[in-house]
Amino acid sequence: MEVQDRHSANTNVMLEIHGLHAKVGDKEILKGIDLTVNAGEVHAVMGPNGSGKSTLAQVLAGNPAYEVTAGSVTYEGRDLLEMQPEERAQAGIFLAFQYPVEIPGVSNAYFFRAAYNEIRKARGEEEVDPLEFAGIMEQKLEVVEMDPAMLSRSVNAGFSGGEKKRNEILQMAVLEPKLAILDETDSGLDIDALRIVADGVNKLKRPDRATIVVTHYQRLLNYIVPDVVHVLANGRIVKSGGKELALELEEKGYDWITGGAPAGATA
Amino acid sequence: MTDAVAYVEQFRKFAASGGGGDDAPEWVRAMRSSALERFTQLGFPTTKNEDWHFTSVAPIAERQFVPLTAPSGDVRRTDLEPFLFAATERWPLAVFVNGRFAPELSHLEHLPAGVRVLPLARAWDEAPELARRIGTVARHDAQTFTALNAAFLHDGAVIHVAADRVAEHPIHLVFVTDRHAANGVSYPRNLVVAGANARATVIESYVGLGDASYFTNAVTEVVVDRGATLAHYKLQRESQNAYHVGTIETTQERDSHYVSFSLATGAALSRTNIGTVLGGEGCGATLNGLYMLDGAQHGDHQTRIEHAQPNTFSRELYKGVLDGESHGVFNGKVYVRPIAQKTDGKQTNNTLLLSERAQIDTKPQLEIFADDVKCTHGATVGRLDEVSLFYMKSRGIGADEARKLLTYAFAADVLETIENDLVRNGLEAMTLARFV
After folding, report:
1. Interface contact flag, A89 B413, Cβ < 8 Å
2. CB A39 within 8 Å of CB A78
3. Predicted-complex ipTM score
4. H-run or E-run covering B177
5. How far is residue A263's CA from residue A261's CA, in Å, rounded to a whole number?
6. Contact B390 A85 (CB under 8 A)
7. Hey, is the C-beta of A185 within 8 angstroms of any chain B C-beta?
8. For the CA atoms of chain B, what is the radius of gyration?
9. Scanning every residue of chain B, which has its alpha carbon at the shortest distance from the alpha carbon of A154?
């Protein structure tokens, strides 16, 4: 594939996926994914429902509900599949969930600080006290235009869909991951929320960081401009290209690539 | 019927010593005798009794607990600090050691106008009309442990908040059993009367200072008069080897609100009975609770909410966290009398099992005899949610920490309903320290 060739010249590889197969229960969902992400890049992973986009995101974050049956994933030279979910997070991987989890009884303030300190500890940095952390949060809250009052609320509990997604981006802004994976963060967002979410992602952009944007629709990619667009169908990447591929998909749908095969069927 | 002979023998000694040395008036002596008679008739309940099906009191029935007569004298104020919520001296505090009022550890000097807090052994002289209400709400004719308590009653707290008065700070009753009380039993007996439109918070703490095996059999009677609001927290943090049976019986008048919270973390075997009768239109009752048990602990809550008049509401949420081989029991009855139309009741019991061997018996019950009511109930038993665990881990929080935090969160949910900031914060900190 031309995209892979282009990247092979680049020595700054962050994530390398080879022949990745994964299943949930008895159902095989990923059927041989190959993907290389270099530092500084934004990759969009698009595809119809059931193509395996979210599974790929969950597998990268280490969700134990998914079983990897074949293939390898190397992250910064380490075998990612050997790492626990918390080790992956501590090593700089962040997944913005498609369905953020509600945790009644744990305040956002406590949750954010616990996560922040765990990641600092892993980096060999000092933990911060609540007062110091409040200052950090104040700045980050502005980025996602969120009311500081949300800090005293329980994590995602009773949040609207948009608030939950913004809370994910806020976590991302606070934890400053090297590799951010956004799993359909755009679904259910109005245009204002979409812009806020995209701003949060773009502000994080640096040459030593990378982003994987998993999305069904092209519209988020108006705000977060990808370097590479991949189309996933039936558990495989069937096409990769530049940002114009996303526009083409928006216009023509997925059938012209996937051959009209129903989602989940063997290609 | 289980053998109650040892307790009858103890009563003979107790009566012969003039009720353990007090000068109780004739009506108290008469009540003790009649209660003992009733106790011997009732005997200890067996697990064939529906209300005791999941809790065997054989360890209490078969032991020879000796009534505690006097504190050993070595309980210091600093021993009590962990249980006092860092409250100021503004909180009226009545401490009872081994069932007897301990004036040197108490401070009742800041009582607001219209608020009386007296030890029972003084109340029957100083406030006889009030003390006389003892036995009118928690009658000793049906319940073994209430009868046993009445047979041996000698001290406790009598609280009266006059009509239209607001007790700004919680009134804290601390029943402490000291380190030397092994094989002893105390029978605290309390009365709380909130006058019309009064507002007050009363806390009953039951704590043990050592790891002695002793028995506490407490009864509290509560009257919430017209339009009054009473918050009533019962916090059971007895020694891990203790036995505890605590009963609260409440009667409510029109437009009153009774807010109960029960915490059970201590004792080898504990049983808490909380019952309220919504006896006037517009009454409301909130009964919440939390049990956290570990090791071989057994903790049983029985609640009864009786909707006796139309247009009353009740809300009940009990949560439990069970670890080790502990055994929790929740039996909640909501009873709606035929006349109690427009009753609005909701009852929930959720238990989190942290180990394979922990066990819960839950029995939410609705008994509805009116036809125009809205009542729901439900119970869940579960383990920690894998999705939530993964979510926390994906943020860098380690597996152990995530588990502890989710356990805390499960419990904190019901602690959040406690209105008093210091009590809520104190119990949240205690829960956090237990799990995190």
Report:
1. no
2. no
3. 0.92
4. strand B171-177
5. 6
6. yes
7. no
8. 21
9. B409
Which phi and psi (to 5°) does residue A145 adopt?
50, 50
Contact A86 B397 (CB under 8 A): yes
Q: What is the token pair recorded at A165?
A: 């997604």
* Order of strands across the sheet that contains A27-38: A27-38, A13-24, A67-75, A78-79
Interface of A with B in 187-246 (CB under 8 A): none
- Residues in Cβ contact with B76 at an 8 Å cutoff, skipping those fewer than 6 apart: none
CB A201 within 8 A of CB A211: yes
3-class state of residue B203 by DSSP: strand
State the alpha helices, DSSP H only, in chain A. 2-8, 53-61, 85-90, 108-122, 130-143, 161-175, 191-203, 244-252, 255-258
Per-residue pLDDT band at B4 (split at 50, 70, 90) = confident
For chain A, the first-to-last Cα distance in angstroms comes to 18
Taking the CA of residue A154 and the nearest CA in chain B, the distance in Å comes to 9
Nearest in space to B36 (alpha carbons), one of B60, B69, B6, B58 = B6
Beta partners for residue B271, in sequence order: B245, B300
Instruction: Indicate whether B16 pLDDT > 90.
Output: no
**Which one of A63, A100, A106 has the shortest CB-CB distance to B390?**
A63
Count of beta carbons in the 10 Å neighbourhood of residue B418? 22
Is A86's CB within 8 Å of B391's CB? no
pLDDT single digits (tens) B167-218: 999 999 999 999 999 999 999 999 999 999 999 999 999 999 989 999 999 9
Q: Which residues contact B103 (CB under 8 A, 6 or more apart)?
A: none
Structure tokens at B253: 């008048």
Cβ-contact B356, A29 below 8 angstroms: no
DSSP string over B284-320:
EEEEEEEEEE-TT-EEEEEEEEEE-SSS-EEEEEEEE
Q: Is A100 part of the contact surface with chain B (CB cutoff 8 Å)?
A: yes
Distance separating alpha carbons of residues A47 and A234, to the nearest angstrom? 9
Chain A positions in Cβ-Cβ contact with residue B406 (cut-off 8 Å): 103, 106
Crossing angle for the helix pair B5-16 and B26-42, to the nearest 10 degrees: 170
What the block records as the tokens of B158 is: 């009598």
CB of B392 less than 8 A from some CB of A: yes
Residue A73 distance to chain B (closest CA, Å): 17
pLDDT at A18 over 90: yes
- Rounded CA gap, B58 and A10, in Å? 77
Tokens of B191: 């009365």
SS3 B368: strand
B369/B366 Cα distance (integer angstroms): 10
Residue whose structure tokens are 């869940």: B380
Strands (E), B209-268: 215-224, 229-237, 243-252, 257-264
Q: What is the DSSP string of B58-75?
A: HHHHHS--EE--S--S--
How far is residue B250's CA from residue B303's CA, in Å, rounded to a whole number?
11
Q: What are phi and psi of A216, to 5 degrees?
A: -90, -30
DSSP secondary structure letter of residue B51: G
Answer whether A43's CB lies under 8 Å from A210's CB.
yes
Could you tell me how many residues make up chain A? 267
Element (H, E) at A23: strand A13-24
Query: Which chain A residues are closer than 8 Å to B409 by Cβ?
Result: 103-106, 154
Dump pLDDT digits (tens) for B82-119: 999 988 888 999 999 999 999 999 999 889 999 999 99
Do B238 and B207 form a contact (C-beta atoms < 8 A)? yes
| DSSP string for residues in A187-252 | TT--HHHHHHHHHHHHHT--TT-EEEEEESSSGGGGTS--SEEEEEETTEEEEEE-THHHHHHHHH
Closest CA to B254 of B275, B228, B274: B228
Kindly report the nearest CA distance between residue B138 and chain A, in angstroms: 36
Domains and CATH numbers, chain A: 2-258 (3.40.50.300)
